[in-house]
Design a protein that fits this description.
By secondary structure, this protein is mostly helical. The protein has 11 helices and 2 strands. Helix 3 crosses helix 10.
Length: 249
């Protein structure tokens, strides 16, 4: 295909996209109004599915397949990082230099670690009831573990961070979301359809599959962030390449 033909194909695609965008804009509500058709429908659907948090209803019910894509992007990113940052034959591990942490910072970090972890788990568990969910709570939970690195030292983080288990949990969280979607197919509906009992509104067991999908995302995000930071920290603190004089020798 010549350059001129490729440009014509690109121009045709851009024109078609512009036409679809212009047609969609004609159906938008007026600026500054208090009524929005998508928002009203989303709230109505959330109440019908007994999910108190409309955002979680959208993420894990109305467009749960899109959320699977977002989770898979993070999973693939971590997998790619692990492959790219793996230790090569001309690299070796060295013990990181000890860092002296002020006593006040050490005490504050130890105090805030369980508090931050509890907040992260709370945000994950209550994602279908209040703002937050698996994505936000997973980042908070993963951050709590790394307070050991900030307030104590790197060896302390390594001792309390079984990396192999987190790598396994990362894959398990991704697999759980995929397999939960099959419940809709087994029930004779669509993939990722909300087919479980909806429970009582505004309780932890409400929303059908929403809390389960939310928990799967929380596990995957927490583990993914831990694994990602583990490889970045190892690359920055432990991995050392061969020096020029070693190579020449």
């Amino acid at each position: 295909m010549t350059r001129r033909v490729r440009l014509w194909v690109l121009a045709a695609g851009l024109l078609a996209t512009a036409a679809l965008y212009a047609a969609a804009c004609t159906q938008l509500p007026g600026f500054g109004g208090s009524w929005h058709p998508y928002g009203d429908r989303a709230v109505r659907a959330a109440l019908q599915q007994r999910t108190a948090n409309t955002v979680s209803s959208v993420n894990f019910d109305l467009r749960a397949f899109d959320t699977l894509g977002e989770e898979s992007v993070l999973f693939a990113s971590v997998l790619g990082t692990v492959v790219l940052l793996r230790r090569t034959r001309d690299e070796k591990r060295v013990a990181p230099e000890p860092v002296r942490v002020p006593a006040a910072l050490r005490r504050y970090g130890r105090l805030m670690l369980p508090v931050t972890l509890l907040i992260g788990l709370y945000v994950i568990a209550h994602g279908q009831l209040s703002p937050g969910g698996g994505f936000q709570g997973g980042v908070v939970a993963a951050t709590s573990l790394h307070l050991l690195y900030i307030a104590v030292d790197y060896p302390a983080l390594e001792r309390f961070r079984p990396l192999g288990l987190y790598e396994l949990a990362d894959g398990a969280g991704e697999a759980a979301y995929v397999l939960l979607g099959a419940a809709g197919l087994i029930a004779g509906s669509a993939y990722l359809a909300n087919v479980l009992p909806l429970g009582t509104f505004n309780t932890l067991s409400s929303g059908g599959t929403v809390p389960l999908l939310n928990a799967a995302v929380g596990i995957e995000v927490t583990s993914a962030v831990v694994v990602l930071l583990a490889h970045f920290l190892a690359q920055a603190l432990e991995i050392e390449g061969e020096r020029e004089e070693d190579r020449s020798a």
